[in-house]
Amino acid sequence: MIEAEGLYYCYEKNGDYVLNDLNFKIDRGEFVFIIGASGAGKSTLFKLIIREIVPVKGTLKVFGHDLARMPRYRVPYLRRNIGMVFQDFRLLEDRTAFDNIAFAMQVTGASSREIRRRVPYVLELVGLPDKANAKVCDLSGGEQQRIGLARAIINRPAMIIADEPTGNLDPENSYEIMNILRSFNIRGTTVLVATHNHEMVKLLKKRVILLDKGRLAADEAKGVSAGAL
Asked: How many Å apart are CA 198 and CA 180, to the nearest integer?
């Protein structure tokens, strides 16, 4: 699903590399934590995966496509297969939960009938079946993040990328969000989570890729040692 080979990236010409000679492969259906200190390159890696930016050296393949060689017109089709979840939610606060989720379907050309059928279903999946008509600004942080999750999965993506999805949440809500992500993974969706929540990483015992100053410092199949954290 994702394959990086000799992957490099820097934001400024002749600047320091933010990602430095990364080599890894993520298979379909995996759940992978991407961890590391601030500035380690986690968000940059996600930007590369959704082709917001392109490698300066090396190869990054997603769904079998070399992103450096992907024509610009193909990028929207790539992103339709990737659901994004953000730390700051990025919701339309003056709109309802239903509207926020429906918007992700509208941009793909879904019919009104399909939207009316699908949105209540995903609200049920994230545990908010009674919040369809609630304005986002009236929801708690945990509820807003669940709406963000529902929006990410509404178009049945093959992959979910979550960038610090529990960074603004308390421990109870953090666990619930991770549990929802795990349930999607059980259904076959590939899940990538960038996080500083080391307790959650230890608890779930999923594969961990540790970045250190842009380099691959560890790649552990079943969690990571306390020393590495």
From this structure: 18
